[in-house]
Amino acid sequence: MGLVSFTAFFFLVMSHGAWAADQTIAVLNMQKAVAASEAGKAAQEMVKSKVEELQKKLQDEEGKITALKQEMEKKNSVWSDTVKEEKTIELQKLVRDLRTKRDDANLEIKMLREQQLGPILEQMETVVKEVAQKKGYVLIMPKSAVLYSADQIDITEEIVSALNQAKK
Asked: Do the Cβ atoms of 13 and 125 come closer than 8 Å?
C-alpha cells in the first residue's frame, strides 16, 4: 500500500514539475523599481524636502532647549529657588513640546510618503499586470520574498521602463 501511494505521489509531482517548467516566472524588486522610476524620484525629492524643512524647525526648538540649559547652568547659583523652579518647569515644557513636535513631524512624513507612493504603487500594479500578460508571465513575485532567483528572471528594469512610459 505504501509503495502504491509513493508511486502515485511521485507521478503527480513529476507531472506537476513538467507543467511548471513550461511556465514563466519572474521576480521584481519593488522598492528598487519605485526608487528608480521618474515618479518615485520626484516623490522622494518631495519627501526629502519636507524632511529637511521639519528638521530645521526641530533644530530651532532644540536650540531653545540648549540655550535654556546653558542659562540654567550659568545662573543657577544666583537664582532664587522660585526662579530655579520656574526655569525647570519651562525646560520640561520645552522638552515635552519638542517630543510632541517630533512625533507630529514623523506622522506628517509617514502620511506624505503614503500619499506620494500610493498612486505610484497602483500604477506599478497595472504596469506589472500588463507586462505579465504581454510577456506570458504566470507568476511575478517580490524579490524580497524569494530566497534565491537567477538574475535573468529579474524584471525590475523592465518594470521601471514601463512605469516611466506609463507616466508620460
From this structure: no
**What is the residue type of 73?**
E
Residue 23 is classified by DSSP as S
Angle among Cα 12, 136, 30 to the nearest 5 degrees reads 100
The helix (H) or strand (E) run that includes residue 25 is strand 24-28
DSSP-based three-state secondary structure for 122: helix
* Coil vs helix vs strand at 77: coil
What length is written for the chain?
168
pTM across the whole model: 0.69
Q: Residue 22 in contact with residue 136, Cβ under 8 Å?
A: no
Could you report the per-residue pLDDT of 87-118, keeping only the tens digit for each?
999 999 999 999 999 999 999 999 999 999 99
Burial of 151 (0-12, 13-18, 19+ CB in 10 A): exposed
